[in-house]
Amino acid sequence: MSADNIGARFSAVIVNYNGGAMLSECVHSVLREGAAAEQIIIVDNGSRGDSLASIERDIPGARIIRNVCNAGFARAVNQGLAIAAGDFILLLNNDAQLQPGALRAFAEAFEQIPLLAIAGGQLRYPDGRLQNAIAPLPTLTAELLPRALLKWMFPRRFEGKTATSVPIPVESIIGACVAVRRSVLPQLGLMDEDYFFFLEETEWCQRARRLGFQVYHVPAARAMHVQGQTANAFRSQARVEFQRSKLTFFKKTQPRAAYLVVSALLPIKTLVNAVANTLFCILTVGANRRLRIKAGGYWYLMAWHVLGRSRSWGLPGKCPRGKDPRR
Hints:
By secondary structure, this protein is an alpha/beta fold. It has helices at about 20-30, 50-60, 75-80, 100-110, 140-145, 145-155, 185-190, 200-210, 230-235, 235-255, 255-285, 290-305, and strands spanning about 10-15, 40-45, 65, 90, 95-100, 115-125, 135, 170, 170-175, 175-180, 215-225. Strands 1, 2, 3, 4, 5, 6, 8, 10 and 11 form a nine-stranded mixed beta sheet that branches. Strands 7-9 form a two-stranded antiparallel sheet. Strand 2 (about 40-45), helix 2 (about 50-60) and strand 3 form a beta-alpha-beta unit. The radius of gyration is 20 Å and the shape is globular.
């Protein structure tokens, strides 16, 4: 592969939701890696800001799909995958920026590992610190035991970040910077749209591995990731989406007994956290704003469980079921 044709082999799908200036920085980072503007696909999930205006002005060749409502991450990605034409398809969060050599590292991994279907890049905070980029598949054991104990018992499996310099096989990757081999999509299928936000890439990785494909972490494919802009703006609602996705994962991929246990366990854990944080607020006479927000978030989540886990709760602006998100 010559240095000047790597980017041309990639399409990029970027899901945007009120990304603001971050979206422009994200798109330009892909262009700097040699991708053609015509192969950059931005799927906007009903944003209210003007982030698309700068893209239309500065990068007229980029393709934009406008949804009038929030279709969720998986559905928006699938809209982009349906029209992507590259040998490889990059899925990049709008709050992430590729670092030099990222697309070359992905392409080399795909060339060297014939069964590689999904590759995740190395994620770093703006200050250079490593971010979690690897994730184990959810299991009943992981729900029942404390995370600290699991990391002590199985350090490699539950280590979310690694300083390795070579690609390594993993159970699942974090979806902020991911590349997929387009030729596997007819067999692998698109992302499961029952996941609105969180764990859609986890299920995709599990599906790939069950089909005999491989999933790798590729550390030389680096991206700077601000992390969690949407989730941080709607913290309590994001907790609802995460637990909903976790229940969906267990219901669709695990034995029914495991789903029933997790379904009963999540509200118990939520109640314990709500009570504990409320007590801490009382002990500090409400002086700690962070504690107040956490307590309120857990009570919001508890109310969602008690009131029947309605789909209408969670992140705002969702598309109604069955609605074409573009109309």
